[in-house]
Specification:
Distance between the termini: 96 Å
CATH architecture of the largest domain: 3-Layer(aba) Sandwich
CATH topology of the largest domain: Beta-lactamase
Number of strands: 22
Structural class: alpha+beta
Number of helices: 22
CATH class of the largest domain: Alpha Beta
Largest sheet: 6 strands, mixed
């Protein structure tokens, strides 16, 4: 009986062990089909799923920037051991030296994580690799997002994308080697909104590198979140029209909506097609643009400090009115200019003497030499140096000598010298006569086109401005940064603006310095400027706003080597004002001859530039 019991115990134990083994085998072979053991049998890849980058549209919803798919060949360096390197190099059409260089770079970054080894595969190469990639288990193709631009201009405003560098990889863990991000313009300023959130997919692959399904049933996968779409402040029609008017000229145009600070257009010429800096040819084209002697990459609107010329008289008059050294009735003589000892500041013929209103309309240089010296020699200050320091504070309140804070990178603060600069040049007790050229916007003063447009907006608003910005809203929640809603007041009382604006209203009517450029039915308040240029013909400058009451647009136009302000800058600016305020944007201009002259004028006299050649290449039918 005892022997029989031991047998039953032994058989029971044997059956129990058998059940355990069978259960375990069943679990491994039938139940657990997607986890660790299958990964060991085949292998896995973690594929980044790139989100759709946010689109950018103009203020009326017209598409400016959208997405396009691009394809990168990825490698996991640790797995790239036994494969036919020569065969893969042949498929990629690169030599083994270059291939080894890329592979080592990927291994240095992280041998266990995937890195780009061939960026922006041409489509024919992408389709070919799909057929042969099973031969190279450590490699796979990842789909990414690249950009396309719906306009062959506006490059300095929209910006372009470029590959992240090592410093950026260390700074922001969002990126990995081969990723692209905004480098300039809106693409850079709003990168964190536009880029979205990456997703990932972990897949099982067999020994031929073919996908065999999800790992762990998708347990470790995550979906991407698309980037925020941006409604920009730009008027696409106005931007394109302005670029046409500025073609074959060097200069810049900036237009602002005074009541909001929204930038309506921002134009530079030379310009370039932002689509040149997309895809496989990005690096080659960038090098060509960088070496182009016409400097198409230079953002004149934000970075070039031009002498403002006579447009600066509006600011000088306002400061003098605030300081109490000038009244609207004040008259000063002009005998062909301003003369004091050895100092002469010339002026064009006009009636003399003039009051404040007509000094603006006729742009009298002598008048503003007297005005500026009265500001600096004001007896309420202990010295010229103290008066000058206060004068610079007035300028800063206009956004002059400081950055406006526009939501675009690389803005310059322009040029406003401090008092100690003149001490080094003229001695400790320098006098107002030493800097008299500043009275008419020459000498040691420089404003960017953006700053001049902002001055026009301040004049339109009678004393304040909003931070200039190139977006209206961000994302579905229509986000607008609070900084863009705040009014920035100058140090000038509102009442002083009336006389200056009355003078500006006379500029574009017969008898004013730009009398032939006015637009019938629109009261344009403007100010011409002719900035001396030591390197050639004078620069043509014009600032304006319109209409006079309840203004909708403020603008600055600068045409390098364009001569008088009325020659090119005023006609171009006034044509843009007419287009923007028109109810019917397709209606012909009321100044067809002026428009034709601006569209066909060629002031550069240069042969086609490298950037133009690239643009023609980019637009060549394929």
């Amino acid at each position: 009986m005892e022997k029989s019991n031991r047998l039953y115990v032994f058989l029971g134990a044997l059956v129990l062990v058998g059940i355990i083994f069978i259960t375990r085998l069943f679990f491994l072979q039938i139940i657990d089909t997607s986890n660790y053991y299958k990964a060991q049998a085949y292998g896995s890849n973690e594929i980044t799923i790139y989100p759709a980058r946010g689109t950018i549209v103009d203020r009326y919803g017209k598409l400016l920037v959208y997405n396009d798919a691009s394809y990168d060949l990825m490698v996991v360096p640790q797995k790239a051991k036994d494969f036919d390197k020569a065969a893969l190099c042949k498929e990629l059409m690169i030599d083994t030296t270059e291939f080894n260089k890329r592979l080592k770079k990927a291994a240095r970054y992280n041998p266990r994580e995937a890195s780009v080894i061939y960026k922006n595969l041409p489509f024919h190469l992408y389709t070919r690799l799909q057929e042969v990639l099973y031969q190279f288990p450590a490699f796979y193709i990842e789909t990414k997002i690249d950009r396309r631009y719906n306009i062959n201009g506006a490059a300095h405003l929209l910006g372009y994308m470029g590959e992240v560098n090592e410093r950026e990889l260390e700074k922001d863990k969002y990126y990995k080697p081969g990723d692209i991000k905004g480098i300039t313009g809106l693409e850079k300023s709003y990168e964190t909104f536009l880029r979205g959130i990456k997703g990932k997919k972990v897949v099982l692959v067999d020994k031929f590198s073919k996908t065999q399904g999800s790992f762990a049933g998708g347990k470790f996968d995550s979906l991407p979140t698309a980037g925020e779409n941006i409604i920009s402040s730009v008027d696409l029609d106005l931007q394109v029209y302005g670029e046409q008017l500025l073609a074959n000229k060097t200069g810049s145009i900036v237009a602002i909506e005074p009541g909001t600070g929204e930038v309506l257009c921002l134009i530079n010429n030379p310009n370039y097609d932002p689509n040149l800096l997309v895809g496989q040819q990005r690096n080659r084209n960038f090098s060509a643009l960088l070496l182009d002697p016409s400097k198409p990459l230079f953002n004149r609107a934000l970075k070039a400090p031009y002498p403002p010329g006579s447009t600066f008289k509006t600011v000088q008059a306002l400061i003098a009115l605030q300081e109490g050294v000038l009244t609207p009735a004040t008259r000063y003589p002009c005998h062909g200019g301003y003369h004091m000892g050895s100092i002469t500041v010339g002026c064009h013929p006009h009636a003399s003497p003039l009051d404040l209103e007509n000094s603006i309309a006729k742009s009298c240089n002598a008048y503003y030499c007297y005005v500026y010296r009265s500001v600096l020699d004001n007896p309420k200050y202990p010295s010229v140096q103290a008066a000058y320091t206060q004068w610079t504070k007035y300028l800063n309140s206009f956004g002059i000598g400081v950055k406006t804070g526009i939501d675009l990178p690389e803005e310059s603060s322009g040029i406003v010298k401090k008092s100690n600069y003149f001490e080094r040049v003229f001695g400790k007790n320098w006098r107002s006569s030493n800097v008299v050229s500043i009275s008419i916007g020459q000498g040691e003063i420089g404003l960017t086109p953006l700053q001049m447009a902002n001055v026009a907006a301040i004049l339109a608003n009678r004393g304040y401005y909003f931070t200039p910005h190139v977006i209206r809203t961000i994302g579905d929640k229509n986000i607008v940064p609070d900084d863009f809603k705040k009014k920035h007041y100058t140090l000038i009382d509102r009442r002083h603006f009336d006389s200056v604006i009355a003078g500006m209203a006379k500029v574009c009517i017969p008898g004013g310095t730009a009398g032939r450029t006015g637009i019938t039915g629109i009261e344009i308040c403007g100010k011409t400027g002719t900035a001396q240029n030591p390197h050639g013909k004078d620069h043509s400058i014009f600032i304006a706003f319109a209409p006079r009451h309840n203004p909708k647009i403020a603008i600055c136009c600068i045409v390098e080597n364009g001569g008088y302000g009325a020659d090119y800058a005023a006609p171009i600016a006034n044509l843009l004002i007419e287009r923007y305020l028109a109810t019917d944007k397709t209606a012909p201009s009321s100044k067809p001859e002026m428009q034709k002259r601006m569209l066909t004028a060629n002031l550069t006299g240069a042969k086609i530039s490298a950037s133009d050649s690239l643009k023609a290449l980019a637009n060549k039918p394929k």
